[in-house]
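Table 4 source record.
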Amino acid sequence: MDQKSMDKKRCTAIVLAAGSGSRMKSDVAKQFMELRDRPLIWYALHAIEESSVMDDCILVTGAEDISYVKEKIVARYGFGKVDAVIAGGAERCDSVYQALRFLADGGLTVPNRDGYVFIHDGARPLLTEEILLRCYEEVRKCKACVAAMPVKDTIKIADSGGFAAQTPDRSTLWQIQTPQVFEVRLIIEAYEKMMARRAGTAAKAYTDDAMTVEAFTDTPVRLVRGSYENIKVTTPEDMAVAEAFLGETPDPRQKAAEVFLICGKICSGKSTYAERLRMEYDAVLLSVDEIMLAMFGLYAGDRHDEYTERIQEYLFAKSVEIVRNGHPVILDWGFWTKQKRAAARAYYQSRNIACEFHYIDISDSVWRERVERRNRMVSAGETEAYLIDDNLAEKFAGLFEPPSDSEIDVYVRE
């Protein structure tokens, strides 16, 4: 496990789903309208559920819809990361504040006081793992960031009579999206100050969370690239656009795999299986261990994790080049964590390359037998590898995160 994975702070999503159907010209709230036989809100919740970044979620909806949401959406679709469904307020900022107060008061099953909050509009169905990963990496550096995209069109500022008064430089303009991501303490501080100012006055509410942080703290907000497809569904026309974007989103499992990713603990039999797969598909086998042994022998010293990470990045890029030249590829290095698996799938999906995760699923007793067999072969000089004593075996077992069914395409049980 790399240092970033070990240092990961808790990430809580606040998903806002308390809107109405007025601009959709519907009696049904837009978040419950169906897009491809799923409620619109399903798509954002599904992205969070499958994300390696997100740990839990507070879903904010209308007070009258709480029972419906719990039964017909959260329970029906198995959204285990939705830890709470709470009532929102009259305006967007009120809904966000209710969720932040719930979080600050320790309402979550696992408290999050020192991590990050991802505030997302439930009416943005095209949220992706890559957007979440980019936002997570940036908030770790800057404390506050928002998904956004450069404006494509020329923008005019009108005067009171409706005439063009100014034309701002388009290169400085960005269209703000969600998620908007902040340190927990920072966003709570900003909202407490804003709500205190609004109390008993007619002070104007801020239309997004970044404005609140900008107005009530000294922390600048970083703009992080989102996606032009990350639209907010507000009108019937938007629903049609979202439908079109979903149609263009590749599903790697609908065509033959071009990249096979081998998942499993050390000594589970990954390399043996990968070699069989290579012969079956006439594929190119890329192995981190093979390169590490060739470069450093058995020991790479204190920089082992750094070298491993750099080799993996190189092999990811090389695999794309090989696939583009018409050959399938096998990546054999374990993919021990949920975050690593999700990032790899997102990497290939964004490049329209079909991939499959093959999991070497063996019992603990069989795994220990294989560890002992490897140690005997090492001691006899029959293979070049390091011994795995009991302490090291326990460490490796603790670092491996067993995958869920949704992460795996092919189970290999031997």
